[in-house]
Amino acid sequence: xxxxxxxxxxxxxxxxxxxxxxxxxxxxxxxxxxxxxxxxxxxxxxxxxxxxxxxxxxxxxxxxxxxxxxxxxxxxxxxxxxxxxxxxxxxxxxxxxxxxxxxxxxxxxxxxxxxxxxxxxxxxxxxxxxxxxxxxxxxxxxxxxxxxxxxxxxxxxxxxxxxxxxxxxxxxxxxxxxxxxxxxxxxxxxxxxxxxxxxxxxxxxxxxxxxxxxxxxxxxxxxxxxxxxxxxxxxxxxxxxxxxxxx
Length: 247
Fold this sequence. Notes:
single chain, alpha+beta, three-stranded antiparallel sheet, 11 helices, 49% helix, globular
């Protein structure tokens, strides 16, 4: 499957995954599973029929039980870290995002990044929009810029991956395709799936989190001091990103 079409499945689904299978007569294949709200079913089926070799798609209704969720600030190694918490009957059962804490050096980068988001939201006086790709590019790019200032001198890829290994080729690839990525991001700005494609579980040419590279490039292009960036309203930030993409 073309990675761009694969990202459409991820964007339309609550979750999606594939696994290798051995079919009749020893034929190798891939089993693709998608979980989505019922109203996305037709779209997902169309992508599967159009972009894979399958002749049939099975679908069935299931029930979903979801934990009560909220954002909290916890102390991690003496630093305040913002995490998503799941509760069952009022009791904490899950801390989401702890998987990003890899080692002490990477933890410092992640804490600086997330603390910038907290500083940013305090300055805004309200929770920012979560479904606006232009705003999210500004929001994440500002956090990356602040992290470089707070924790300078780290290898450049660590400002995106917080010390996790296995991504040595990610940044060189992004840099090689910088112009194309900026153009594609500009074209996707008004697509409802853009946030998930560029900043969520979606893939861009089979690569994850490419939106963070784009966000960093755009905020660098604005060339403004951090305090000024943080004081910008959502509307001002959104307009600045759109203007930067037109340059």
